[in-house]
Structures are given as structure tokens and as C-alpha cells.
């Protein structure tokens, strides 16, 4: 008996076509991840569509995580899922943030920020490691990111030259920010680009090495124009650690030059004042620190609530901006650790530090078992780890869900699990 063929309507065909291609694209995680990085970047620019990307990036992030949780869930029965001890401190920290949110001065803000951080941690430490399980995949991702930063740096300088009235605003009270929303953002993206510049300078083709040198020159231009001292310091730390492993003569040269620079600053204190004036003549860090400590003392153990800095600082910044219309300020405390203390109290800081401790321990263990390209990536992560943490003594980016550079930092942290898995597989004795 022959069954009659089922007729498909045009609507059915269109539906199957869309579903197939949506799933296909979502499974190409390196492309979607790159789109996420691009979305985070554009959300922090001066372009008219920046606000649209602020919404787009969260929508893509949620869809991305949901689809891949299902995909990974199907593999759990086969016990083919990468896990780590770091899940425990991450889980405890997030759980505490939810409890802390119930005591927040603004429950809605704290819970929404905690949910975003939860989804982001799932992406960084569960989805990325369980997809990037081959060395070729990780190297391909770093290749994509190298060219992404090349485009960003070239686009920034090109628009600065072509439309200086928009992108080269600079003066007594205004710092150069290029195409980004502020000078510190451009500084932090320049720091992140150093990771991929060094990687390609060490491993790339002849063309890529030349391009990496040109990109480094553009980074230096950004640092000079933005006078982003914290970004300069972070980049210096990354380069010093990298050269220690691969270019020892340059390492010693950098140490000598760094010592000379510090000595000159101590000999001529006026240079420190000039740097401060060039960076931000109307810096109110002292008032911000005092405000943060004052608010923390109101609730020493639990703080004011995760994500509430924007609310806490609003009155102070409104007062300052009335006096100085040209004052460019960000509504944060200018120190991630003080901000975390103010928002989540002693308990929050105490629960967050084990995460940092485990990341340090993990990269230290990896250094002993990796080789080749994976060794280079581990060394670069070590530089980023110390450089970005030091930078956050002067910035508040590390736990800011919308910060694109923080997104890259935590992504790289999660990929350490992939690097460990790949190295263990490669080093595993082959049975005959």
C-alpha cells in the first residue's frame, strides 16, 4: 500500500527554511560569538545606532545561551561535558547576589543585573568551553578577533581624520575618545587589542606581523591622545609578561625604561600634575571614594545592592555637572574593588576573591602542561589577568555586564577550561 504524499504549503516550506537556517547559524558559535563582541563594541560607540546595539546584544546573548544549553544538555547523558571546580565559587557568588538583591536599595536594578551576570557566566564558563574543544577552533576565534581589532583601530583613526569635528574633540575639559563613548573605553579596547597584536606578532604570517606592528602604532596613538593612564599601565603589564617568556632582552629593556620613567616622575613631581591635568583636570576620585566608603558603612556586610552605583552617584554627578557643563564623567567609583565593597559589602568581596584566586591557580597550572600556540595563549592570558585587574584599581569594568572588554576578559577566562581539556587530550598516552 502506497501512502499519499503529504503536500507542503508555501508557509510550511518557508517555516522549515527559517528554522533550519536559524539553528544552523546558532550552531556556528564562533560567528555568533564574534557578533556578540561586535554588538558590545558598537553599544559603546558614538554612532547613532549605538543604543540599538545595547538592546540587540542582550537579545542575542539570551538566545545564544538558551540554544546551546539545550545542545549541551543532550550530551550530558554521554558524560561528554566539560566541568570545573570554579563552578562552585561562581555559583555561590551568584546565589549571594540574588540574596543581596532582596536587601538592595533598588531590588529591580540589582536582580536584573544579577540575572545578566548569571547568563553571562553560563556563556563564559560553560558554553564556550564545551564548544571550543579543539585547538583549531580556538586559534580560528583568535584569528577572527585579531582582524576585528584591526578594523576597529583603522576605523577609529580613519574617522578621526575624515570627521575631526565629531571624533577629534579634545580640549581642556575634553579627552579624545575617537569613535567610542569616552576616553577610558577607547583606552580599554586598545589594551584588549594588545593581546591579539602580540599573538599575531609571534605566530602570524609576514603580512599579519606587519599589520600587528601598524596596529601597535595606532594603539600608541590612542594612549597618547586619551592620556588613559590605567590603560597604559595595563598594556605595559601585558607586554612585560609576554616579553619575559618570549623576548627576554626586550623584557629587560622594558624594565629599565619603566624604572627610568618612575624615577623621572619622582624627580619632577610636576609631571604627575601634568598627567593628571591632561587626563582629567576635574577628577573627583577623592569625593567618589569618600562617598563609596560612607555608603558602605551604612551596611558593612551586605552593602547597598549589586548595580546600585549609578543610583548612589547620581546626586553627586548632577551637582558636579551643574558647575561644569563640559565635565565628562562616568557614574562609577573609579575602582572596581571599592565599588564591589559598596554594592555587596564584605560578604560579596569575600565570595568574589576565590573566583580570582581560582583563575590565577588555573593559569599557573596550565603553564606547566601546555606548549606551542596554547602556551602563547596562556601567557597572554596571564598578562591580561594581571593587567586588567590592576587597571580595575582605577576603573570599574570587571563586573560591568555591558562592558565589551570585561566580556572579552571573562570569555578568555572561560576558554582556559578549553585549553586545559585540549592539552590533557593531546598529552594523553595513545593506546595501541
Task: Explain what this protein looks like in three dimensions.
It is a single chain. The protein has 432 residues and is mostly helical. The protein has one domain (10-427). Helix content is 75%, strand content 0%. It has 17 helices and no strands. It has helices at 10-27, 29-42, 50-73, 87-101, 107-131, 135-162, 164-167, 183-203, 206-226, 229-246, 248-267, 270-279, 285-298, 309-323, 336-369, 372-391, 404-427. The longest helix is centred in the C-terminal third of the chain and has 34 residues, at 336-369. The chain is globular, with a radius of gyration of 23 Å. The chain starts with 9 loop residues before the first helix and ends in a 5-residue tail after the last helix.
Q: Which features would summarize this protein structure in a list?
A:
432 residues, mainly alpha, 17 helices, 75% helix, ligase
Strand content: under 5%
The shape, in one word, is globular
Rg on CA atoms, Å: 23 Å
SSE order in H/E notation?
A: HHHHHHHHHHHHHHHHH
Number of domains: 1
Structural topology:
Layout (H helix, E strand, L loop, with lengths): L9 H18 L1 H14 L7 H24 L13 H15 L5 H25 L3 H28 L1 H4 L15 H21 L2 H21 L2 H18 L1 H20 L2 H10 L5 H14 L10 H15 L12 H34 L2 H20 L12 H24 L5
InterPro entries: O-antigen_ligase-rel_domated, WaaL-like
Protein name: O-antigen ligase like membrane protein
Subcellular location: Membrane
Amino acid at each position: 500500500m502506497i501512502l499519499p504524499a503529504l503536500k507542503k504549503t508555501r508557509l510550511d516550506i518557508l517555516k522549515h527554511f527559517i528554522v533550519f537556517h536559524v539553528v544552523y547559524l546558532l550552531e556556528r558559535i564562533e560567528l555568533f560569538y564574534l557578533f556578540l563582541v561586535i554588538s558590545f563594541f558598537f553599544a559603546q560607540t558614538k554612532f547613532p545606532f549605538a543604543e540599538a546595539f545595547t538592546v540587540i546584544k542582550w537579545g542575542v546573548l539570551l538566545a545564544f545561551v538558551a540554544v546551546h544549553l539545550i545542545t549541551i544538555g543532550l550530551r550530558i547523558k554521554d558524560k561528554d561535558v566539560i566541568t570545573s571546580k570554579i563552578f562552585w565559587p561562581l555559583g555561590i557568588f551568584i546565589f549571594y547576589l540574588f540574596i543581596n538583591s532582596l536587601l538592595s536599595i533598588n531590588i529591580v536594578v540589582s536582580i536584573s543585573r544579577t540575572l545578566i551576570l548569571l547568563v553571562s557566566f553560563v556563556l563564559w564558563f560553560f558554553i564556550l568551553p564545551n564548544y571550543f574543544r579543539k585547538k583549531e577552533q580556538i586559534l580560528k576565534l583568535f584569528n577572527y578577533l585579531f582582524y576585528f581589532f584591526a578594523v576597529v583601530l583603522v576605523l577609529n583613526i580613519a574617522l578621526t581624520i575624515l570627521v575631526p569635528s565629531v571624533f577629534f574633540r579634545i580640549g581642556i575639559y575634553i579627552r579624545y575618545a575617537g569613535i567610542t563613548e569616552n576616553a577610558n573605553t577607547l583606552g580599554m579596547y586598545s589594551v584588549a587589542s594588545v593581546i591579539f597584536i602580540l599573538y599575531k606578532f609571534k605566530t602570524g604570517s609576514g603580512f599579519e606581523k606587519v599589520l600587528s606592528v601598524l596596529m601597535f602604532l595606532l594603539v600608541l596613538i590612542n594612549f597618547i591622545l586619551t592620556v588613559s593612564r590605567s590603560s597604559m599601565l595595563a598594556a605595559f603589564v601585558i607586554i612585560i609578561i609576554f616579553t619575559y617568556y618570549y623576548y627576554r632582552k626586550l623584557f629587560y629593556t622594558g624594565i629599565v625604561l619603566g624604572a627610568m620613567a618612575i624615577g623621572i616622575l619622582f624627580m619632577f613631581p610636576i609631571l604627575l600634575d601634568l598627567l593628571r591635568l591632561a587626563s582629567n583636570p576635574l577628577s573627583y576620585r577623592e569625593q567618589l571614594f569618600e562617598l563609596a566608603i560612607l555608603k558602605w558603612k551604612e551596611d558593612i556586610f551586605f552593602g547597598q545592592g549589586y548595580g546600585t552605583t549609578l543610583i548612589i552617584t547620581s546626586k553627586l554627578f548632577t551637582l558636579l555637572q551643574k558647575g561644569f557643563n563640559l565635565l565628562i564623567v562616568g557614574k562609577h567609583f573609579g575602582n572596581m574593588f571599592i565599588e564591589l565593597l559598596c554594592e555587596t559589602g564584605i560578604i560579596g568581596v569575600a565570595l568574589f576573591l576565590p573566583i580570582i584566586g581560582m583563575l590565577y591557580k588555573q593559569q599557573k597550572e596550565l603553564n606547566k602542561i601546555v606548549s606551542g600556540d596554547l602556551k602563547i595563549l596562556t601567557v597572554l592570558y596571564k598578562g591580561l589577568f594581571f593587567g586588567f585587574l590592576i587597571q580595575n584599581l582605577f576603573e570599574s569594568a570587571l563586573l560591568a555586564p555591558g562592558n565589551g572588554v570585561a566580556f572579552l576578559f571573562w570569555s578568555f577566562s572561560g576558554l582556559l577550561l578549553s585549553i586545559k581539556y585540549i592539552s590533557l587530550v593531546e598529552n594523553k598516552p595513545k593506546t595501541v
